[in-house]
Amino acid sequence: MIQQLIFAIVTIGAFVYAIKQFSKIRRNILLGQDEVIEGDSGQRIKNTLLIAFGQQKMFKRWIPAVLHLFIYVAFLFTQIELIEIFIDGLTGSHRFFSSILGGLYNFIISFIEILSVGAFIGTLIFLIRRNLLKLPRFHTDEMTGWPKLDGNLILYFEIILLIGIFSMNGADMVLQDRGLSHFANTGDFAVSGWLGPSLFSGLSEGALVGLERFGWWIHILMVYVFLNYLPSSKHLHIMLAFPNTYFAKLTPAGEMENMPAIMNEVKSMMDPEAAFSEDMSMEEELPEFGANDVTGLSWRDVLAAYTCTECGRCTSVCPANMTGKKLSPRKIMMDIRDRADEIGKNLDSGDLQFVKEELRAEAKELTAANYDDGKSLFDYISREEIHACTTCNACVEACPVMIRPVEPILKLRRYEILTESAGPSDWLPMFNSIENTGAVWQIPDARDKWRTEALNEQS
Amino acid sequence: MSNLNIPLMADVAAEGKTPEVLFWVGCAGSFDARAQKVTVAFCKILNEVGIDFAILGQEESCTGDPARRAGNEFIFQMTALQNIEVLNMYKVEKIVCTCPHCFNILKNEYPALGGNYEVLHHTQFLQQLINDGRLKMKEGGAFQGKKITYHDSCYIGRANGVYEAPRTVLESLDNQLVELKRSRKNGLCCGAGGAQMFKEDEPGNKRINTERSEEALASGAPIVAANCPFCITMLRDGVTAAGKQEDVMVYDLAELIVDNNGL
What we know:
The complex is a heterodimer.
Chain A (H helix, E strand, L loop, with lengths): L1 H28 L11 H13 L8 H30 L4 H6 L1 H29 L14 H32 L14 H9 L4 H25 L7 H11 L12 H11 L1 H6 L21 H9 L5 H5 L1 H4 L6 H21 L7 H4 L22 H5 L6 H5 L7 H14 L7 H11 L11 H10 L1
Helix pairs in contact in A: 1-8, 1-15, 2-9, 3-5, 5-6, 6-7, 6-8, 9-12, 12-15
Chain B lengths: L8 H6 L6 E4 L1 H6 L1 H17 L3 E2 L10 H6 L2 H17 L4 E4 L2 H10 L8 E4 H10 L15 E4 L13 H9 L3 E4 L28 H11 L4 E4 L2 H13 L7 E4 H9 L2
Parallel strand pairs in B: 1-2, 1-3, 3-4, 5-6, 5-7, 7-8
């Protein structure tokens, strides 16, 4: 009874805290601008099934894809076991599903065990890859400190979880053999059926019961730790990969978003009559174009940042990055997330010092609308980084969860050029030339001089 | 060889006619000495097949691609809206481009501004001509059995998913296509896109075109086929920097066809 009570308290605590954390993430994502989702929802569902659920894009690299698949499938199927743990934990039953499912139960648990062995092997190889093999994409500048620890922590968690599962099942196997009534016969599980007896057969009954409980608690506690660790970890992708893939743009990767505000202004410049017909209020605040902060990006960009698993496939194929430039598409996404977290934390503090200066005297509470901490994304992302992008879309192609790092990069460029009137001075002659002569180069020749010459040449 | 005929849209329209297709030449095709050759080569093919086409000539302006990608939406909108005015005035329905950047922006980004056209990249157009039997390759041409490698440009490749059309065109030349290590979806950029062509590189330890040219040289093919004027410039620079400009030539697909058929 005490065990059930402790279980109920721990479970409620874990979920309450997790819900609080996840609602903060949701709030942070919605700091981004509203954006209407366009396009066929059938295609979106198909993408979600194939790319998120089916891991299609992971298989561009076979070895990590297979190892990741073990962990992923094991994770999915362990949820069945988890439901049982909830029921057992709250009611005090033992392996609740075994009496209902009969022979199928043995099959399911055995299947989970085999997957878990796969996940265990996958985890070990991932640890080796990450720490001993020194894969370049795991050892770039942005992969130090928390991101590095984060990448390893999850693998340690996974190992602890697997130890929990196998000590729980293994001890259970031995206890079943000894005919204890509480431990109903389920038949031998695929792995613990031999692993249990070979490791634990020498233990006393009391020790075995203790070990079974230890494994059971380790299992569920790791799940709760994981649940509450997710919001601050790159492993949030296990959830957000699905919405991110669903909401990902269906337009060709080469298509840049239009800016209707500027289009309309240019249209009215070109057509003086239109200028008068429109309501042009002079009191309006000067608009900001592009984005210099999370609040200027689309919520979709921020969702993408929280979805990023920091796998670095984008960075490893980025032509700028591989030739020593500072740009790393992964870092761009990580910076957006860090900045969103920073704004979120400050908003949570409620400290009025974060209210825009001009509104501070009258402000009663701190909101996303009146927020200004004097910082921006440019405190995280340097100009050099965004200037180095060739918009080649290699990062977009490489991302297994449909993130398009090019989009925020181009929005930052737009801010720099349109709002700050800054940017690389090299580009000025090109801008001037297009504006004045309609060509990218300042060339005095007529645009069709080549035609005249070609026609002359043959005559 | 038949006479070169490059009609101007204004002249064709003055006769009350509408050409089947508008050839969008682009800035590089108009002003860059190397790309001009591709422009003329493509015109020769259009003439050979008897395509009813025209160019805008001096009425054409930059599509605004580099300005937009640099972040300058104002310049882009100005030049794009002006182009759309001209294109709509001539009631243009179908456009073919020899530049993937022009192709991408006309096809994907002009519609939001009121410019709706069927837009093809010249490699797609050539593929159609070959498939329809309108363009026939001379047998035993200059490239028969020769090793040719192909560089996917980002803007018809990943940006628009066109990988097979240029390869079909190459195969029709009966040569031996050697794929680069990074090709199709994994193709490596030449370094020019995103308005990089118009500024100095950011600090780094290598130029992107050097990286790509080394890969092209490693293929051992004496001919590198490309489909973009900027890629051609970049790859040629890279090949020249490696001192291989005598051994390895960078051509546009249209030029290879002209060579093969002796146009």
